[in-house]
Amino acid sequence: MLSGRVAAVTGSTSGIGLAIAEALAAAGADVALNGFGDPSPALEAVRAHGTKALHLPADMGNAAEAASFVAETLRHFGRLDILVNNAGIQHVAAIEDFPPEAWDRVLAINLSAAFHTIRAAVPPMKARGWGRILNIASAHGLVASPFKAAYVAAKHGLLGLTKTVALELAETAITVNAICPGYVRTPLVDGQIADQAKVHGLPEDQVVRDIILAAQPSKRFIAPEHLGALAVFLASEAASGITGAALPVDGGWTAR
Fold this sequence. Notes:
Blueprint (H helix, E strand, L loop, with lengths): L5 E4 L5 H12 L3 E4 L5 H9 L5 E3 L7 H15 L4 E4 L14 H29 L2 E6 L12 H20 L5 E8 L5 H14 L3 H9 L11 H11 L11 E4 L7
Parallel strand pairs: 1-2, 1-4, 2-3, 4-5, 5-6, 6-7
Helix pairs in contact: 1-2, 1-8, 3-4, 4-5, 6-7
């Protein structure tokens, strides 16, 4: 389906980003990975699908490095067809206690990085006459939760960026869409479950149902591979008419 395509996925050494990178590779794309984690397992997992992969350790919180991630992908592969902005961090605090440096870092990685990578990717995509830009937002791009001011603001902003760029590119063969996951079972969330169980003195299954998934009506985590499958579809020709969309994958969270 994506044979001959090249994808660049930020924040892809684990979790959602790795699942998307693997799915794109399984569909035939070569992939540039990015992230601070040990890249070896991710590279092995992606290359297992028979496509090429490399790791570029750019800091998405740095404007120049975010743009260079795109430039280095182009330098290594000679093209860039699919850009997936997935890198993200979280900080939880009441607004009066929210550290300004945490606000700046969350906004830089969760929102500004996507601006810098998109800005760098659009000219070569225009030159080739085709492209797919996927921004991994969140259910928190559509609704809010307390104590997550920076994350919610960044994800709302990412949806605004998605719509704006989609309109600018509407007459081209480049589409721009956002995926809005609810809670996904990742190593990061596993750590949160264990921490909450200790704090509240509850068994982990109760923490999952009554705390972590309290807002998710299905009471089930979203599977990373399901997000990968959606990314592959949005990157395909079958999705050429979908642009500027914010697609929830959230077990009914934002249907309330």
